[in-house]
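So, read this over?
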Amino acid sequence: MTDNKRLIALAESFLVTLIWSSTFVVVKIGLETLGPLTIAGLRYLLGAIVLLPFLIKRRSLKISLPRKIWWRLILIGVSAYTLGNGALFWGLKYLPATTGSFLLSLIPLLVLAGGALLLKEIPTGWQIFGVILSLLGGGLFFSTGLQAGEPKGLLFVGIGLVGILSFTLLGRSLAREKILDTLTLTTLPLAIGGLLSTLIALFVEGIPQFSGRSWLIVLWLAVVNTALGYMLYNHSLRELTALEINMIMNLSPLFTALLSWFMLGERLGPIQILGMVIMIVGVILVQRVRLTNRLIS
């Protein structure tokens, strides 16, 4: 039964990786008419609104949660949706969609250290090797140099990575303790982070001017990439460690690159493709070894 749950969690994490691979491409298109903070805020606020009726119907909304749990939910909402993804979307103003997605491959290294120190999830030797291999792939990807404006984008993405790291560790700790069900753990931080991001966007970017396409983009991001995506992500965290699920997320750049090629006309050079392949080998190596050891034992 435990192995079946783990296989389901792996399938969920791969599905959410496919869904989130489209985020950078869709957001890049949305930035033609909307500000990055507006897209981020509306995406998460509407995603929470989509999930709220299900939360109420299941009577999972526990207003009487302990104060320390509420504080952790607030930190998750702010770190993931206001700080993390808000900064990532802002960085996409200066970076190609594929580069933005590829930069998330730095997360496993941060999670490796954070998970070991804060969650006591000690990585195996193969996991460390897989992370190192992924980082080598990242080094090759950027070895061709940066274009004008990209250093500024890297700064914003760096801020976003810190926010997403905090989200991953906080979310994993709550999911592992099984204090809250997946729906509650997904909806409440979404509502908190989305509302705060929307208020900041109104102050910084003003009232948005929507077109039919921009509304479609926001709704798609809210329902598919947010409501469905984060439900799958949080549920898989019940069985997978923070490092494992983020290693799977490292497959995102491959799918983002393919989508960017067809939809945005972005191209990768041979060295960048080689770097991406090396990174994916690291991902497969870590997951295959962990899964094989679990099935044998």
Notes: The chain has one domain: 2-296. DSSP finds 13 helices and no strands in the chain.
